[in-house]
Amino acid sequence: MLRSLIWLEEVSSTQEVAKRFLVGTVVVANRQTSGRGRLGRHWHSPEGGLYLSFSIPVGIKDESTLPLVVAHSVASYLKALGFMPAIKWVNDLYVGGKKVCGVLTERLRDRIVIGVGINLNQESFPKDLEAISLRMLSGKTFDKVSFLLELLEFIERDIEKLNAFGFVAFKQAIEDRLLFKDSEVILYTPEPVVGILKGISEEGSLLLLTQEGLKSFSVGDLTLRAL
Ligand code: BTN
Predict the structure, then answer these.
(1) With respect to CATH, is domain 180-224 assigned 2.30.30.100?
(2) Each residue of 23-33: pLDDT tens digit?
(3) Pocket residues: Cβ below 6 A from ligand 1
(4) May I ask the CATH class of domain 4-175?
(5) How far is the CA of 197 from the centre of ligand 1 (A)?
(6) Which helix (H) or strand (E) holds 153?
(7) CA atoms of 161 and 61, how far apart (whole Å)
(8) pLDDT (tens digit, 9 = 90+) per residue, 68-97?
């Protein structure tokens, strides 16, 4: 599925560059000047992080669950490296309460562009970002090339599994890693909805136990409700 690799020093966003190349081309950059996140947010992309994007053709089974599935792939790889990542629905990974990874998927007419940003070797972050790198967590500096190649194997395997068996093959494993599970949260839809996070549905939607009962949400921005 992933056939070639282009590694660039600096780009605006690997998402934009990946759109100009064939499906199956992985675009990696050492820095992004306009790294993008979900909901139009900026993705802080200095030297030291790993920033990659690639496209797959449209038509994959349970396509809308790709952000969760790819976040799960990264989580599985980080777990294999000895970290304990949690998935913050729908597309981020946290370790020890701080963000280490974000996944962005964008659907075009004929392809889906999948982007992954990993806080890998950075030595510090602006305080307001509540981010941390794998290097800050472990004291180790990671070899970017081998990290990337091993990570791509996890991602590729999971995308093939999603296409073969659908999201049902991931639901339990993702629920087991869900950040804020059984805690009181606020989901901004953008209207705030308060509830206890109970899990995810077979469609990858978030299940909240609200005052009106169990409700499912396919979009929103999640935070822990302050005590
Ligand atoms: C998020 O947390 O909202 C998703 C962040 C995704 C960031 C990655 S870095 C590689 C790719 N290029 C971008 O501009 N964004 C994604």
Answers:
(1) yes
(2) 999 999 999 99
(3) 13-15, 32, 35-38, 41, 43, 51-53, 91-92, 102-104, 115-117
(4) alpha beta
(5) 25
(6) helix 144-165
(7) 10
(8) 999 999 999 999 999 999 999 999 999 999
